[in-house]
Amino acid sequence: MLARLRTAVAVAMLVGIFVLAAGVLGGLVVALVWVLRNAPAGAAGLGFILSSVGFVLVVALLRVFRQATPDAPGGVALSPEREPALWSLVRQAAEAVATRPPDEIRLVADANAAVSEDSRWLGLVPGTRILYVGVPLLQTLTRSQLVFVLGHEMGHYSERHTALSGVTRRGLVALVEVVDGFGPRRPLGRLFGAYLALYARVVRAVARGQELDADRWAAALAGPEASVSALRAIVGTAASWDRFVQDHATVGNSVGMVPRGVFAGYAQFLSVPAHRDVDVDRMIAEERRSPLDTHPPTARRVQRIEKQAHELQTAVVVPDGDEPALRVLTDPVGAISEVEAHIARESSLTPVAWEGAVEVGGRRRNEERAVRVMSLVDSLTPEVADLSLVVHLATHGRRRELAERLAGHELDDPQALDVLRSVLELLVRCALVGAGHATYVHRWDRPDVVVDEAGTEVDVAGLVEAVPGNPAGGEWLLEVLRAEGISRTWNPAVSSRVQGPAGPEVLAVLVTKQNWRYAHPVLYVTDAGLAIRTLGYREYHSIPPISPQKTPAQLLEHSTRVDGLRLLVDPATELVPWDEVEHVTYVDGARPRLTVRRSGRTTSYSAVGVAGDVVQAFGTFVYGRISLG
């Protein structure tokens, strides 16, 4: 009864969008008529306002009626001839809940299952039905648990949830466009914004009710025991998959790579006890709860099924129900290989071995993190941020301020120390790898492991353990790194190595300041020569956030994103080969200065931001032709 009432309210509020819009337009028309009669001089301005408001409302509200263009379905389609066992289970589930089966089953790279239907005429006319099944679910669930998942998704079709979801979603999009069009802080924006907040809560409440309805169908199909175990297993799978994707599967994406055998890697990832034996009870207890959630808390879903257990009987008996769900596929290896190929093709990534993706991608990922750290540190002090400054801040009185700036929120003392240790670990790893003393290697138990030239793991955590809050420990760390050829003024730089022809590798970046405004030559020390590129007026203003002046940290963060390939194709870049550089003088101070002499002409630059080890980079290519000061 409550679910039907919520649905009716959602439909009524959808109609209310048009009533509210009509009321606003009607009020403006009445105001315009009154102005025409009493103060004709103001009619032009009010007419302009009326036409502007009308345009925003009409364009946005047409979205509700317009048939949404369905996105190209993702994943790999599995035909009934190819996977008869899976289709048989899906058809049994559809028959049990009294609905027609989907038109397509597609395998996707997601720890979830979902259904879609491109219904027409506000959901009154059914359309093409697609069932999406995630490979990680097939890898972690049993056959019996898979029946619950399939019954849940077919339950959405049976209750016509997919018919209503499309039009309600378009209603949300229309309201968002109206609020953005008027401006959220203006009177009409506030009015429609308040309606949007209320409408979103009602729609989300309807969605949560729909999930409970689908659970009821699925539990009647699979039985209460398999249903509860499936819900618990899905929670664990979602958490482990998210961690696997974040730490491992996407490690090479920024350099154009994807590890070959992602799902085989996920199976190996789960073989590590720490990843496999997760505390599902704790995760369920700590699930966030919000009025805008589309799914009810898992604890509530489990309690609801357990309360209805005496009413439920297993409608579909699955042979070998405790076997892995993946075995329901006739050709799991071929199907999974197609999904992985689809991922690479859609993302324009090159499949490589795990070791290669980790070695190159891990370096790039940590360099980008280190540059962001230096940008945040740079905002704390007028000095140019470098390794020694970070160590100084971490070991003296401003360490709490530094930790909270890096974390983005308030911290207690133990939390602040943990943040500082993790940041120092990041910088030390980047410095060692950049200097050629260490390499990233692949480990399933944890990411970001580096080894030395002999293949022995470098205990980076041990090097920085006692540094936060300890000035003597900070000096000891800097001396240890200096012995490895890493300067106290070391700064991270983002290497430009990517899969395929990527141009020269960028080893260091210097953002400089000229006498005239908005002209910022950026010097890139590359293995092909010294690249000089000036930030033009438009590019300067495009750097976020929008403001007339940019900080050195903002300029540096923008400049380090320019890789070797862009330097090659950018006509504004002047590339000076190293054999044409006669001499380089580098003065390292609060604001480093660089003087370059080539072809008998000397040019000086004052740096406002530095990334990478400039001394080491220049020394590599102009050895014997560099002076330090």
Describe it:
It is a multi-pass membrane protein. It comes from Nocardioides renjunii. The chain crosses the membrane at residues 7-35, 41-62. Keywords: Cell membrane, Hydrolase, Membrane, Metal-binding, Metalloprotease, Protease, Transmembrane, Transmembrane helix, Zinc. This is M48 family metallopeptidase. With 629 residues, this protein is α+β, with helices and mostly antiparallel strands. The protein has 4 domains: 18-65; 76-315 and 330-347, no CATH class; 353-483; 506-628, PH-domain like. Helix content is 53%, strand content 13%. It has helices at residues 2-38, 43-65, 84-96, 135-140, 143-158, 161-182, 187-222, 224-249, 262-270, 273-276, 280-285, 298-307, 332-347, 354-378, 387-395, 399-407, 413-434, 460-464, 471-483, 537-542, 552-559, 564-569, 614-621; strands at residues 76-77, 104-108, 113-117, 129-134, 257-259, 350-352, 439-441, 449-451, 506-512, 520-526, 529-535, 573-576, 581-587, 593-598, 601-611, 626-628. The chain has an 8-stranded mixed sheet. Helix 15 packs antiparallel against helix 19 (471-483). The radius of gyration is 30 Å and the shape is globular. The N and C termini lie far apart (80 Å). The mean pLDDT is 79.
Residue share in β-strands: 5-15%
Largest sheet: 8 strands, mixed
Strand order of the largest sheet: 12-11-10-9-15-14-13-16
Overall pLDDT level: 79
Shape: globular
Q: Provide the helix percentage.
A: 40-55%
Number of strands: 16
- Provide the low-confidence segments as ranges: none
